[in-house]
Amino acid sequence: METVIIGQGFNLGENTSVGRELIEQFNSERYDSFTCLVAFASYGGISALTPYIEKEKKRGVAIKVILGVDQKGTSKEALEEVLSWGVDALIYHTRSVTIFHPKVYLFENVDIFTLIVGSNNLTEMGLVKNIECSLMIKDIKSNPVCSKFYDYWKPILDGTETNLYPITRDLIDRLSEEGIVVSESRRAQRHDDGSDSADVPQPGAMRFGCSEIQPNPEGFAPKRLVKVRRPASSSVGEAMRTSAGDEVSLPIGQEVLIAEIGGGPRWKQVNFPVEIFETFFGARRGDNTYAIKLTNIAADGTLGSTETRQAVSVKSGNYRFEIGCAETQGAYPGAESRPIGLFVKVKSDEFLYQVLLAEHSAYRRIREYLYRESPHKGDVELKRHIVHVEAVRALYPELVI
Description:
Layout: E1 2-8, H1 18-28, E2 33-38, H2 43-58, E3 62-68, H3 76-85, E4 88-92, E5 103-108, E6 112-118, H4 124-129, E7 132-140, H5 144-157, E8 164-166, H6 169-177, H7 184-191, E9 224-229, E10 247-252, E11 255-260, E12 269-271, H8 274-279, E13 291-297, E14 303-310, E15 312-313, E16 319-322, E17 340-347, E18 350-356, H9 363-373, E19 384-388, H10 389-395
Parallel strand pairs: 2-3, 3-4, 13-18
Antiparallel strand pairs: 1-7, 2-5, 4-8, 5-6, 6-7, 9-10, 11-17, 11-19, 12-16, 13-14, 15-16, 17-18
Helix pairs in contact: 2-3, 3-6
């Protein structure tokens, strides 16, 4: 028998996490079943496991997922992602004051098992970033731990428990309508950053320091969401189509380019350093056949139409793409309040973007961050900085979930 303590989020030099262990077990391809009983789930945590679940399904692995929806700890988007897995997926929920609160991950084949039990929810924070602790046991199936686990949880594991409900489209809609599950942004506000709209910090409250956050392990790549409003008629890229109402959440990548936009009468032709032109946008210097798709998010959060824009690379060292949003139709506001573009990567050649002018509510926060983080090359140099989407989420919560 092998017994391991999985610490997480504290001693970062160890670089251990339940997220890392789950990936290792999935990649081992040693097991023919995976079962988890977990209290809370987020879209980030669930989507990070999607490629592994899909791979295991192709191998014929039996997968059972049982989630709690208490205390608004599981989001609607998380349940929708689980539904897309096409596995045996259920929720456990009652009207009593007790809540469904286990965090159990079990891998098995006919001979051996790996059991992870601890404090880690099925969220990005719970699987990697929070300070957590779990116990992992690996042994042969004759170990009584395995049989006792099945003895205790039998009605839930065999589906005879009356408080289990299969995850369906109709169930998700009903849970959402009744406020039992909420959007990813509401869930994250309450559970990932520890805040709640009902609890407003008061002046003079205790102030605590910050600690470093553990990075995601290799292969753990949560999908992100950006929240926008869709007008009644719009033509958006195929990857951005959705049928879910007026306010929609779109999957995005993990990189956001924050870029000051230079002046001149044709300032909608946005210039970039060649490194950003090639590494972020995927263009190549000297190749003007390459094109990207740009979809604008207006100041009011409305999603615009998708523009196909060719890369422009000239011998003078200019590397640019043209944008066509409402903000660029007016006169350039000047060097003292340069417009700032947020370019959010959806795919390698597909991007959302928004142009912030000085009067925008997020402009000051974004500008201060950009000037603090961008290399200082003098006041004349335009500032650009590629950041993780979580940084923009903290600065601009109205946009990024």
